[in-house]
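pasting for the record
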Amino acid sequence: MTQTITTSAKALVEAAEREVETLSIEDAIKLHGRDDTVLVDIRDIRELQREGKVPGAFHCPRGMLEFWIDPASSYHKPQFAQDKRYVFFCAGGLRSALAAQVAQRMGLKPVAHIRGGFGAWKNAGGPVEAPEPSKPKA
């Protein structure tokens, strides 16, 4: 029997964007380096190694987000216990919308996500730390 998917990923992202604040790339870049803001990069580690990263951003793989936010979890990270604004981003702005929605539903606030993600950040000239060159294999 084949599966019948009743809700598309696109519909989930659209619903998330109705619930959370979506920042333009210009507004997001202005937040870089501020003490009251945590930029949260939810991309996979391989994406960071391939594309580079935003200097100072906190890396939280999407698969660990709920566990790192939850103070009762043995995986909790203190970065999520600060009285700051949390701005999530991924490669293109889809996963980060879902991540921000989950974080907000868990009680983290205020949260937002970046429209266009890391790709838009790079294209707009936001600061980027280049990926480290691969080490030759012995």
